[in-house]
């Protein structure tokens, strides 16, 4: 599921600042290459024994990710249910408490990056 209207799409930040801000909120930069990185936040639905991941996709618009001064732009934000052994199911419905937690974290990230 793509999360719309977060106010993050198109936002830019230096890599070091984005890493620091995301880490404060529990996000981890998992996938990355020279020009692209994703930041993931694990959210657990204890009632249903399910894990969801909030994923923030970014792309370098200045420099490469090997430099702390590279400038990244937020592209899209997704949330999906974790599947075994690896992967995310973006089509499954997401419980409202998980969506609420995701929205709150995204707003906190937006404030840190502003």
Concise account of the structure shown:
The chain is of the alpha+beta class and 114 residues long. The chain contains two helices and six strands. The protein has helices spanning 15-24, 96-113, and strands spanning 12-14, 28-32, 36-45, 50-62, 71-82, 88-89.
Model description:
The two termini are 25 Å apart. The radius of gyration is 14 Å and the shape is globular. A hairpin with a 3-residue loop joins strand 2 (28-32) and strand 3. With 114 residues, it is an alpha+beta fold. The protein has helices spanning 15-24, 96-113; strands at residues 12-14, 28-32, 36-45, 50-62, 71-82, 88-89. The chain has two helices and six strands, in the order E-H-E-E-E-E-E-H. The model has no long low-confidence stretch (mean pLDDT 94). Strands 1, 2, 3, 4, 5 and 6 form a six-stranded antiparallel sheet that branches. It holds the Pfam family YugN. This is YugN family protein. InterPro entries: Uncharacterised_YugN-like, YugN-like_sf.
Please give the alpha-carbon distance between the first and last residues: 25 Å
Mean residue pLDDT? 94
What is the share of helical residues?
Answer: 10-25%
Spell the H/E element sequence: EHEEEEEH
Structural class: alpha+beta
Total beta strand runs: 6
InterPro entries: Uncharacterised_YugN-like, YugN-like_sf
Protein name: YugN family protein
